[in-house]
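Fill in residues.
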């Protein structure tokens, strides 16, 4: 993997995290610094899982369960 590939992958992950944060904020209201930090530090797999869970979860904790 080239350096450019790594930057592209990182950019996609950051974009996915920011999109998830928008969804979470819209559904559950203002997010704590801890949630912001956790989502921004999440792996691609976690972000994929959480993005799916946000659709049906009743609480923020339900989304972020791994």
């Amino acid at each position: 993997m080239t350096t450019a590939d790594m930057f592209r992958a990182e950019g996609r992950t950051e974009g996915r995290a920011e999109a998830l944060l928008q969804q979470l904020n819209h559904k559950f209201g203002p997010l704590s610094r801890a949630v912001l930090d956790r989502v921004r530090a999440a792996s691609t797999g976690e972000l994929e899982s959480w993005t799916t869970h946000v659709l049906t979860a009743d609480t923020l904790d339900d989304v972020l369960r791994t």
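The chain has a mean pLDDT of 90.
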